[in-house]
């Protein structure tokens, strides 16, 4: 499907298009492979062509450059029983739990061609979340001194960015309606703030597609892309058969 979008930020439209792929629930390693492939392809271009991957992941933990083993509150036996791997990454941000119900957003875009600095890019991602939440009547905000987005109940979105040859990848993780017992297996911010979700703040069911569609619109607008194309799946993807283990009682 091909669509067009006019910019809302008042700046010039980007000359390339944004290829958006809706991947469903996929292994983290497969999503990382697709990102790295895109980084390689885009690094040889001189235009603003970019990619955007949106998916959910089976339960696992990733640790960024600002994270440490001390952030993981669960012991190794619990992680094994829940079939949750721990992956150390060269991205910004701290320690994050990934699980179905969390929207993983991976923009792979040339920051130099778009004329966006790294600090401005982080703020852009956060503002896209805030814009989307405004449409859902969820008051949300960001802080200059720490990545992520908060609401009244706590932090519900995390930012972890990596850059190679001025191509940004990794990105944004939004707790839409995950199992919160999984989310609280780690300490995700240095302030010790409670981790929450959009569904908990709204106190009602929040379909993933509502958040995903709004976020795509706002990302395209703020990045300044005039054209984008939406695809479902990817031929190089492998699907996970992992199940989510949720504590009860």
Question: What are the secondary-structure elements, in order, as H or E?
Answer: EEHEEHEEEHHEEEEHHHE
Number of strands: 12
Give the rounded overall mean pLDDT. 89
Q: Tell me the number of structural domains.
A: 1
Alpha plus pi helix count: 7
Rg over CA atoms: 17 Å
**N→C terminal distance:** 45 Å
Strand content: 25-35%
**Shape by Cα distribution:** globular
CATH superfamily: Bira Bifunctional Protein, Domain 2
The CATH architecture name reads 2-Layer Sandwich
Class based on secondary structure composition and strand pairing = alpha+beta
**Helical coverage, percent range:** 25-40%
CATH class: Alpha Beta
| Oligomer classification | single chain
Say what the CATH topology is: BirA Bifunctional Protein, domain 2
Contiguous uncertain segments of 5+ residues: 1-14, 243-249
Q: Strand order within the widest sheet?
A: 1-12-2-3-7-11-10-9-8
The largest sheet, given as strand count, sense and whether it forms a barrel, is: 9 strands, mixed
Describe it.
With 249 residues, the protein is an alpha+beta fold. It has a single domain, classed as BirA Bifunctional Protein, domain 2. The protein is 28% helix and 32% strand. The protein has helices at residues 28-43, 76-81, 111-114, 118-135, 180-183, 198-202, 208-223, and strands at residues 2-4, 14-25, 50-56, 60-63, 85-88, 95-98, 102-110, 141-143, 146-151, 154-164, 167-175, 225-232. The strands form two sheets. It has a nine-stranded mixed beta sheet, with helices on both faces. A three-stranded mixed beta sheet has the order 5-4-6, with no helix packed on it. Helix 4 (118-135) crosses helix 7 (208-223). It is globular, with a radius of gyration of 17 Å.
């Amino acid at each position: 499907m091909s669509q067009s979008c006019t910019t809302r930020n008042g700046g010039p439209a980007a000359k390339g298009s944004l290829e958006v792929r809706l991947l469903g629930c996929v292994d983290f390693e497969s999503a990382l492979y697709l990102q790295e492939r895109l980084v390689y392809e885009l690094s040889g271009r001189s235009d603003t062509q970019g990619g955007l991957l949106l998916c959910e992941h089976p339960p696992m933990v990733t640790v960024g450059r600002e994270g440490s083993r001390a952030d993981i509150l669960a012991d190794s036996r619990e992680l094994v029983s829940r079939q949750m791997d721990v992956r150390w990454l060269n991205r910004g941000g701290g320690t994050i739990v990934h699980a179905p119900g969390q929207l993983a957003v991976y923009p792979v875009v040339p920051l130099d061609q778009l004329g966006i600095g790294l600090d401005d890019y982080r703020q852009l991602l956060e503002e896209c979340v805030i814009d989307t939440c405004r449409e859902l009547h969820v008051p949300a905000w960001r802080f200059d001194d720490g990545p992520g987005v908060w609401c009244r109940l706590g932090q519900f979105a995390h930012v972890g960015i990596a850059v190679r040859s001025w191509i940004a990848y990794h990105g944004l993780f939004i707790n839409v309606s995950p199992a919160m017992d999984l989310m609280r297996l780690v300490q995700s911010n240095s302030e010790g703030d409670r981790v929450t979700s959009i569904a908990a703040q709204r106190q009602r069911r929040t379909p993933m597609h509502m958040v995903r569609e709004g976020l795509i619109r706002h990302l395209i607008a703020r990045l300044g892309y005039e054209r984008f194309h939406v695809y479902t799946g990817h031929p190089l993807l492998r699907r996970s058969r992992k199940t989510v283990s949720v504590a009860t009682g």
